[in-house]
Amino acid sequence: MKITRIVLGAIQTNCYFVINEADNKAVIIDPACDAGAILDECGRLGVTPAAILLTHGHYDHTGGVFDLKARLDLPVYAGEHEKALLCDPMQNGEYLMVSEVARRGATPVAADKWLTDGEVISPADIPIKIIAAPGHTAGGVCFYLESERVLFSGDVLFAQSYGRTDLPTGDMKSLVNSITVKLFGLPDETVVYPGHGEATSIGVERGGNPIL
What we know:
By secondary structure, the chain is an alpha/beta fold. The protein contains 8 helices and 14 strands.
């Protein structure tokens, strides 16, 4: 398995490619605003996209979904409690992208598969465990590749930081529980790939993240 990323948009969102090197199929995690750049990167890497996974519904993480799905008809996966946020441009920030709203109209982003806590999915034959991690948003999830000791944390946990909770459906008490109980329960050597910024590890964050 191979993991790579590109950084997209004004908020510098990490879009990840998790690649099954046996057949060069890839899972795209959080396709931010530029579907063209994502497809160009797939071509550069020589991979075939197999699925889109969303850690949460904020527009800086979902902006490329509409065009990617229109061009490739990829299945979209998101947390079961994120339905309302994904479908509401006033809550997920899409209303700020005036030109995009005018182009697309009111068509909401929706998932083909709504994910539940603890279930395991296998897009591109890559086993991925779902960890429900509310706090930054009510339905946010993290993606854990247990065999690889890799966690995609979205905007829940960052290197020496954590997600904001002052946006719609955010809740600090839930965020603290998600990080300190669920994520900090993972092995120290687990590499954490966040939605913004550089990678870290569970051991490093358990030893000094300000959420503590």
